[in-house]
User: Which sequence fits this backbone?
C-alpha cells in the first residue's frame, strides 16, 4: 500500500494568525495546531540556516505519532557553494539534528537556483554523495565542523531509509541524461507547479513522488480552484498506484519504471494569502485522508473550509 501525504511548506507565517490559526493561539502552539490539520509539513527554516538538535526534538515532540516532516536542505550547499566542496557542509547539515526526527523524517528536499545549469559530472558526484539510510548519514555527519561535534545531533537508535528529492529551476536540466542519473540514484524529480515561471515536469525517477505547489496562476499567492484540486487528486491517485497521467509532462517519453505503488508527498507553498493550509485541507478531503486529523486531545483546531 502506498502512503499519501498532503501538507504545507512551513507553518510560521504572520498572515496566518487569526485566520488559519485562531485568535489567541500561542505561536509556540502553531506547529501542534498545523500538524493536526495536515499529515505532513515541509521544514523550510533549515534552508536558510542550520537548525539545532533541540529544535528538531521539539518539533518531533509537538506532532502526532504518525506525522511526517520533509526537510529542506541548506541553501549554503545548493545556492552558495553550488555543489562544490560540499563534504563538510553536508556533514554539518546531518550533524545539526534532522535525524532526531526519527520515524517522522520523510524526504530531504534539495532545491537549486534558477541560474544554476545542469552539469553532469557535478550532479553525478553530488547524487553519489547522498546517504540513503540513517547509518550512512551518521557516518557523513562525523566529518562535521568542530563546533558541532558532540552536540547529540545524531543520537538515534537503529537504521532506516532516507529519501531525497531535487527541485530544478533551469531548463538545461530538461534532458534525458539528467532523468537517467536521478533514476540511477533513486532520487525524485520534484513536480513543481510555479505559475509557469520554472520548468514543470512529471518524470517519475524514484519509488516516491514529491510535489511542490507554489500556485498555478500567481506564484506563491493564488489559491487552487476546485477543478485544479480535482486534477491534482487524480494525478496523486495515479502516481500512488504506480502509474502516471496520460498527459504527463515528460522529459523522457514513456511509462514510469514499473512499481505496484508509490508514496506521494504533496506540499502547498502558496502561503502569501493564506491559501496553502486551506488548499491542503481540501485536497486531503478529496482524497478521503482527513478523517484521522484534528483528533488530538487538548488541541482541537476548527479549520473552516
Assistant:
Amino acid at each position: 500500500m502506498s502512503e499519501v501525504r498532503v501538507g504545507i511548506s512551513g507553518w510560521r507565517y504572520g498572515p496566518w494568525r487569526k485566520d488559519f490559526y485562531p485568535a489567541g493561539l500561542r505561536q509556540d502552539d502553531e506547529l501542534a495546531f498545523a500538524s493536526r490539520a495536515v499529515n505532513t509539513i515541509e521544514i523550510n527554516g533549515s534552508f536558510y540556516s542550520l537548525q539545532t538538535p533541540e529544535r528538531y526534538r521539539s518539533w518531533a515532540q509537538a506532532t502526532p505519532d504518525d506525522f511526517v516532516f520533509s526537510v529542506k536542505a541548506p541553501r549554503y550547499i545548493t545556492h552558495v557553494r553550488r555543489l562544490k566542496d560540499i563534504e563538510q557542509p553536508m556533514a554539518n547539515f546531518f550533524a545539526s539534528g534532522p535525524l532526531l526526527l526519527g520515524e517522522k523524517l520523510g524526504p530531504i528536499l534539495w532545491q537549486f537556483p534558477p541560474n544554476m545549469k545542469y552539469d553532469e559530472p557535478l550532479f553525478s558526484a553530488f547524487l553519489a554523495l547522498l546517504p540513503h539510510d540513517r547509518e550512512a548519514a551518521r557516518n557523513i555527519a562525523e566529518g562535521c565542523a568542530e563546533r558541532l561535534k558532540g552536540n547529540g545531533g545524531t543520537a538515534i537508535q537503529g537504521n532506516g531509509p532516507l529519501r531525497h528529492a531535487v527541485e530544478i529551476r533551469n531548463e538545461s536540466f530538461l534532458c534525458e541524461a539528467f532523468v537517467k542519473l536521478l533514476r540511477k540514484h533513486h532520487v525524485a524529480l520534484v513536480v513543481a507547479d510555479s505559475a509557469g515561471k520554472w520548468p514543470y515536469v512529471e518524470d517519475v525517477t524514484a519509488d516516491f513522488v514529491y510535489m511542490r505547489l507554489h500556485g498555478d496562476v500567481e506564484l506563491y499567492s493564488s489559491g487552487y480552484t476546485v477543478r485544479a484540486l480535482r486534477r491534482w487528486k487524480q494525478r496523486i491517485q495515479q502516481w500512488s498506484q504506480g502509474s502516471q497521467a496520460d498527459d504527463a509532462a515528460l522529459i523522457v517519453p514513456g511509462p514510469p519504471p514499473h512499481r505496484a505503488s508509490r508514496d506521494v508527498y504533496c506540499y502547498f507553498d502558496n502561503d502569501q494569502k493564506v491559501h496553502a493550509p486551506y488548499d491542503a485541507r481540501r485536497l486531503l478531503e478529496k482524497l478521503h485522508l482527513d478523517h484521522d486529523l484534528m483528533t488530538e486531545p487538548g488541541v482541537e483546531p476548527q479549520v473552516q473550509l
User: Anything to note?
Assistant: Residues 226-240 form the longest helix (15 residues). The chain has a mean pLDDT of 95.
